[in-house]
Amino acid sequence: MGIPYSKQINLAFDQVTPLVAEGFQVLDTTKNIAVVLLWLEILSALIIALNLVCLVAVLITLNPDLEEERRALVTPAVRWVARETWKVVGVLGRWWIAVVVLGFGVYGLGLWMWFRHVGTDVEEVEGPGEEGQKGDGGNEKGNKESNKSGQNA
To answer: Is residue 75 within 8 Å of residue 61, measured between CB atoms?
Structure first.
């Protein structure tokens, strides 16, 4: 009784081992997905917080009753952003604008070429009358069957 039982156990281990390996792959993939979702959640929280700050700034800017708050909060922030932007433009010159525009242009051209040729397929190149005119020579299964019948004869 010991030998058949051990054969059954070995057979069970042989069947379970690939499943365990697949389980580890699934766990690794799940870990990667969890890390990506973590960063996505942090990014979305930052964007929501930035939206809240912008909405409060717009509220303070547009409400005539909050003129003093606008002068105290919004005006210095806008001045600082304008001053820092002008420093960056002064240091880099106007070349960075050309580089950005050229980069977007090349990217757009690449996207246009990609989407223009995505639907192109070998079957579309062939004419509509050529479809179905291939004999058994073009079919791999037909070649195997003809070889078998030739070998049997």
So the answer is: no
